[in-house]
Amino acid sequence: MSEGYLTTHVLDTARGCPAEGVKISLYRIESDARHKICDLTTNADGRTDRPILGQADFAKGSYELVFEAGDYLRATGTAGPEPLFLDVVPIRFGMSEDDHYHVPLLISPYGMSTYRGS
User: Most C-beta atoms within 10 A of its C-beta, which of 7, 12, 92, 110?
Assistant: First the structure.
């Protein structure tokens, strides 16, 4: 079994709280094709109840997390006018080591940020 796994944490920087109820999809990227692996939703802490990609399913490669941020912003009443500045937020990244990859998303109606966390 691999030592690697993938997690996330979604924080609402405009409201200063975890972003609960954000739908997240994970895709594996191979050449120009996207292959969906799973869909999860953030809990009250802005995290998923399990790793997005656990050790048993971990594989090095290119991936994309897709965050349905617009639905969350609409639900909280902070979205702003349509069309939203930020709606669906894709983050494409690579995993090159058998390690813990943590890809958080900090979101507000007009800005977002990510990084490799711990």
Answer: 12
What mean pLDDT, rounded, does the chain reach?
A: 96
> Under 8 Å CB-to-CB from 55, ≥6 apart: which residues?
1, 2, 3, 4, 5
**Position 73, amino acid:** L
Spatial contact of 89 and 105, defined as CB atoms under 8 Å apart: yes
Torsions phi, psi for 97 (to 5 deg): -135, 155
Q: Is the pTM of this model over 0.85?
A: yes
